[in-house]
Amino acid sequence: MSAVDGQWHRLDAKSIPAAGAVVAAPALATLLVMVIAGAGTTPVLITFLIGLGTALLVAGAATYQWVFYRYRITEERFEQRLGGLFHNHRSLARDRIRTVDLTAAPHERLFALTTVKISTGAQGTEATIRLQSIRRSAAEALRRDMTLGGSTVEESPDEGVLSRLEPKWLGYSALTVSLMLVVWGAIGSAVGSFDQLLRKWGVFDALGGAVASLGIAVFVLVVAAIALVVGVVGAFLLSLEMWWGFQLTREPGTLRVKRGLLTTRSLSLEERRLRGVELCEPLPLRLAGGAKLAAVATGLQEQKQDNKQPDSKVLLPPAPRAEAWRVSAAVLRDQPFDIALTPHPRAALRRRIGWALFSALAVAVVVAVPAVPGWIPVTFAVALVVLALLAGLGFALDAHRALGHAMDDRYLVARNGSAVRRTVALQRENIIGWRISRTVFQRRSDLMTVGATTAAGSSLYRIYDVRTGDGLALADEAVPGLLTPFLERVAVE
């Protein structure tokens, strides 16, 4: 069944009860907590009426949208129209569509519905159209017809599954710091929300007694250990929800990523929009031998979004580094990461050691404030300063060891970072400019930062602290003629 029929279509009528379920579920959970906490009949009744009224309002809004919202697909355009009190007509040219994203939240899956997000990749709301809750079969047909913008692509012999999730990979996801931060933030929010219930159970009094009996230093260490364990377990559960069922496939002219346990998501990306790949290795993941892989492509907006969901550019979840290398070669039909990287000069190491010393000094100033009046033991404060100094020096050495760049006939490869090590392989033919920067300290060390600009990904990919002559020569060789008008040739006699 083709979605390109030129006829106006409605959203699915099941979107009305689905919208009401979104409000009803948390309202019932709140009522359950209130009953357990021993709340009176009046507060429970008021909360029930508020939840019921909110659910009816949301269902009413969904009914209004179902009655007055229409969409259609023609050979040239995708259009949506909203009537009723306000009239709105939007249209996107099909040849400008870059991505089609299918998402099904738990309440939508309950009613066999899917939300479709169609984007041109440009900034602003006018570049995106969202179809809220249409039939799953209609969403799949729409994705097939819209992904290539109406163009015809011949099948390739290497189509099929490029990678799929292995359950043991979830252990790598548990080491993702960003997911741990989400878990800790959720716990902090829950403590604030259930403050009265925790006081009734005597949780805060028990914590105060623990501080008095253990001492503040031991108590902090115990809490840190518990937080680490909870963070790892929570990160594992979040990764299970996000990446379960992950599958990266190549279809005619497109790459498709499918994933999700409770909320399923499918993202299709045209291969002709691909400009390279980026290998990301956060420190805990790198120590375990893992890495993530992301696409550098036009049409994928760099959005600020909830850390509970990965960026749309991610091609591979945390997985063994060897798997990330294999998938990068399969996606690009080449392997740019096999190139030996050129290390950067020792002057770059001296800069990083200076940053480490400055950071240790800042920690010393901070811990001196409670240590001087005796609020914390002096030995504990000194230990923190020494630990900060050793950690800073370790990061400095590791960051310098990570610095490197290389180039072959097709790709420019650059690597940097310690806490988060990133290695990007960027197609040379898609570099559209250079951004050269030199701080006062870099000029004294004869160093510079060379940034390659491109109309994809984060738009700027930097090569940090390379020697001035080497950086200019690299930029001139990578894209011949682009930097030539700005270079001054010095003749050597």
Question: Can you describe this structure?
Answer:
Helix 1 runs antiparallel to helix 2 (41-68) and helix 6 (177-193) packs across helix 9 (216-243). The chain is α+β, with helices and mostly antiparallel strands and 493 residues long. 44% of the residues lie in helices and 25% in strands. A hairpin with a 6-residue loop joins strand 18 (447-453) and strand 19 (460-467). It contains 15 helices and 19 strands.
Task: Summarize the topology.
Elements: H1 15-36, H2 41-68, E1 69-73, E2 77-82, E3 88-93, E4 99-104, H3 106-110, E5 113-119, E6 128-135, H4 136-146, E7 160-164, H5 170-173, H6 177-193, H7 195-200, H8 203-214, H9 216-243, E8 247-251, E9 254-259, E10 264-270, E11 274-282, H10 283-287, E12 290-297, E13 314-320, H11 321-332, H12 346-371, H13 378-402, E14 404-407, E15 411-416, E16 420-427, E17 433-437, H14 440-444, E18 447-453, E19 460-467, H15 468-478
Antiparallel strand pairs: 1-2, 2-3, 4-5, 4-10, 5-6, 7-8, 8-9, 9-10, 11-12, 11-16, 12-13, 14-15, 15-16, 17-18, 18-19
**Structural class of the secondary structure composition?**
alpha+beta
Q: Which regions are unreliable across 5 or more consecutive residues at pLDDT < 50?
A: 149-153, 303-307
Quaternary structure type = single chain
**Strand residue content:** 15-25%
> What helical percentage do the residues reach?
40-55%
Strand order of the largest sheet: 6-5-4-10-9-8-7
Largest sheet, in brief, is: 7 strands, antiparallel
Distance N to C terminus: 74 Å
Computed CA radius of gyration, to the nearest angstrom: 27 Å
Mean pLDDT comes to 84
Count the beta strands.
19
Gross morphology: flat
Number of alpha- plus pi-helical segments = 15
